[in-house]
Amino acid sequence: MNEKPNKLKWHVLFIITIGLISAGIYSASQTINYKWQWHLVLPYIVDTSPIDIIAQGDASAAVDAEGVITLTFDNGAPSRVITGADQVLISDGDLIFEGDLLARKEGVRSGVLIDGLYMTLKISVISLFFSIIIGLMTALMRISDNPFSKNLSILYIEIIRGTPLLVQIFIVYFFLGTIFDLDRFTSGVVALSVFTGAYVAEILRSGIQSISAGQMEAARSLGMTYTKAMTYVILPQAFKRTLPPMAGQLINLIKDSSLVSVISITDLTKAGREVVSGSFATFEVWFTVAGLYLVLTFTLSWGIQRIEKRLANNDR
Amino acid sequence: MTDKQKYTGNDMIVTNDVDKIYPNGCHALKKVTTNIQRGEVVVIIGPSGSGKSTYLRTLNQLETISSGEIIVDGVKMYADDTNINKLRENIGMVFQSFNLFPHLSVRENVMLAPLKVAGRSKADVISEAEVLLTRVGLAEKMDIYPNQLSGGQQQRVAIARALAMKPDMMLFDEPTSALDPEMVGEVLDVMKSLAAEGMTMVVVTHEMGFANEVADRVLFMEDGVLLVDDIPENIFGKVTNHVRLQKFLSNIR
Fold first, then answer.
1. ipTM here
2. Is B206 exposed, middle or buried (0-12, 13-18, 19+ CB in 10 A)?
């Protein structure tokens, strides 16, 4: 049986279905009389507006023929020279007060949404790192015979899995944050790492326990300590086996990071909210935000698939 | 001081009144007492569930004992100052299910313990691994992964891996039971050559031919009790006057 023409048929059907869904969404949006203005979103991705140059203190200004501004501050602070301004808004000899607009420069900057994307990436990567460390330690405690370690890890996992992340973020920020004087960003990282760590722990535990007991016995019979056997024999196999569920959990981490916007961290979601209130292009902004999240999660799952493939080449 | 003098230098493994009771109440070993001499090949036979594998596994403490004492190479296994990892370096073990490390190549399987346990240099260990793998006839398979090998080949790698730590004694836990019949010979040949070199070996097996040919002594166990401890001629010869052993041998023939 030749299966090729059969499969082609289904590929075509897939494309037609996607096309129909897209057309349906488009015509549905037509009925609500919404004016799509995608160009409003662009400045929040790439910001090309002139950059304002502001005076940091009271001063007297000198402007020469080339448009170079020299500020001599009243309080004796070192004078400031501003070069390369595209638009000078003061004249020679003006008295300047703190906060005055002096000049404008042309320039290309990342927009608010891209800054938010960077913040989401930063908080996710740092939390990912810590959640794997926390998860690994907890998983090892969970499988140990020692009742202290075992109960401690079970308590941690149950508490974290049994309460909503949003509530945990509030507790970390308002309670722990007040006691230990944590800033918003640290609070966000702590909440996300501790939350994801509990799930990573359970994934790793199941991975470790899925390795046959004979592997540990073989390693120990060669004279390896428990730690060495774990490090060189059990964990490398367990990590490989848990890559697919781990990928899912780490993608969840990226998505969960949107919740830190409630403690005023300007991540992608918070940036999206700000842009909506500034541009009123509600639909366009949220579609763009979703697209930017997809860029992050697709990159991560693609990366993990690459690792999976490379490891699969070693042994089947 | 006195412990070492009490046992003659010829004893490699001494087991006195070894008892093993599992937490579920199963009494797996009952007062097993025997000595295994340096260079001796001892084969343990018996019906399944007789405790022969359990006994073998107590010899490197993969299984702990409930009472009694085990002395390996003059070292009391359950003394407070005994480092079990150090002791195990000197006891090679080969398992029924091979237990090769699937994430490492054949060569890396053999090299892992010398590198990470003995802490030896990579250059040394690489050449030694080649010598060992050549010896078990797998020189050309060094860079492939265990699951691309046949069962017999895997078991030979497992023997090479155990030998890499240069142990003074080897324990074999039904090394040929998981193999296709045509692969049993290649593994037994490697074991015979080890025996010929004077390696101290304790082998749990159902290969009566091997026991008859290679063993210096055969132990017959049943229900956790060491019933017969004798030279193979007296076990496999025509006149075995032990009823239980007679029944076991006639069942497997």
1. 0.89
2. middle
